[in-house]
UniProtKB/TrEMBL annotation:
GO terms for molecular function: carbohydrate binding; catalytic activity. This is Galactose mutarotase. CDD domains: Aldose_epim_Ec_c4013. It comes from Cryptosporangium aurantiacum. Signal peptide: none annotated.
Length: 347
């Protein structure tokens, strides 16, 4: 298929694939703007404009791979960041991608705020995985673009502002792309300090795969160099992190920090393989941009998921990063760029 072929057979590119703007209209999701992507190669996914342009529902040839939890895609207006003693993100945790940041990731922490030079604000209290995932984006645009007669790119772009007076002013510009006729999603993120105070920056992608891609017998494949940390639940439960069991009664999450071997191009490509369905999911990320990686197993009945988590920081978190000098401090106008690919296919 090329541009001329499509023009001869259909009056609109959407006959082959496209992007459609919709608004979710029921329950806790009501009012969320979303963009429905169809690549024409069996890949369909939603970009949640009002949830930091994160990725929600995702399917390949009719089988879901983006995790669907009981929370649904809750409207950010219902979100209380201080709820549940810093674990409020658990009330809106669903979908293929939850972005964590922009100034904090990992477990909650109360840290020094003297960099903002406001005496009444001595500290900043952060909850699990930060604020950005529940901030609506300003949508710059979306649509289909022919790069040449053979390549049509579906795209969406917007900006997420995380800002406070006497606090951080960070802006995430996110571009999502998918080429018609292919089964991969490209994410291009730029995080910039739009303020005038040095500001901490931490960033993590919580990429979540659910049923039916995740099922008993599915394999979690890693280019593993070594495992440098794991939760106590690993030894207590003894559940494999390679061959997945079915849903487990009372399962306690198992989390690992791994060092992955990059290819010659500096990319790591962990994947989940389901031989029964004959499909795989693969995450491709730059290990220079994300030097840490977490494997998340949440195999409990009713909340059955596995996670791929490339991260700018190690498991010890915000205070440890400040103490050992590994915290990223963005100066005024300084920015970081992240390029990541989500790929599905058949075996």
């Amino acid at each position: 298929m090329n541009r001329l072929f499509l023009a001869r057979h259909a009056g609109d590119t959407s006959a082959a694939g496209g992007v459609r703007a919709v608004v979710l209209d029921d329950g806790p999701e009501r009012g969320i703007r979303a963009l429905e992507f169809r690549t024409g190669a069996g890949l369909n996914f939603d970009v949640l404009v009002d949830r930091a342009l994160d990725l929600g529902t995702a399917e390949f040839r009719g089988d879901g791979f983006g995790w669907r939890s009981a929370t649904g895609f809750r409207h950010p207006g219902l979100h209380d960041y201080a709820d549940d003693d810093g674990l409020s993100i658990m009330r809106s945790f669903s979908g293929l991608l939850l972005t964590a940041g922009l100034d904090h990731t990992l477990f909650g922490a109360e840290v020094d705020a003297s960099n903002y030079r406001y005496p009444p604000k001595e500290t900043v209290k952060n909850g699990l995985h930060g604020r950005v995932g529940n901030i609506p984006a300003r949508l710059h645009g979306y649509g289909e673009r022919w790069e040449d007669d053979d390549t049509c790119v579906l795209w969406a772009e917007g900006e997420v502002r995380q800002a406070a007076i006497f606090g951080e002013h960070l802006r995430l510009t996110r571009r999502v792309e998918a080429t018609v006729g292919t089964s991969e999603i490209r994410l291009i993120d730029v995080v910039r300090n739009a303020g005038f105070d040095p500001t901490p920056h931490m960033y993590l992608y919580h990429v979540n795969i659910g049923w039916p891609f995740l099922a008993e017998g599915a394999r979690y494949e890693l280019p593993l160099q070594e495992t440098i940390w794991q939760t106590d639940s690993v030894a207590e439960q003894g559940v494999s992190n390679v061959v997945m069991p079915g849903p487990q009664k009372g399962f306690v999450e198992q989390v690992y920090e791994h060092v992955l071997k990059p290819d010659a191009d500096g990319k790591a490509r962990p994947r989940l393989v389901n031989e029964e369905l004959g499909v795989f999911f693969e995450l491709e990320y730059d290990t220079a941009q994300f030097p840490a990686f977490f494997q998340w197993l949440h195999l409990r009945e009713g909340a059955y998921a596995v996670g791929f988590e490339p991260s700018t920081h190690h498991v010890q978190g915000a205070q440890a990063a400040r103490d050992d000098g590994s915290m990223i401090w963005l100066g005024p106008g300084e920015e970081r760029r992240y390029t990541t690919t989500f790929r599905v296919g058949t075996l």
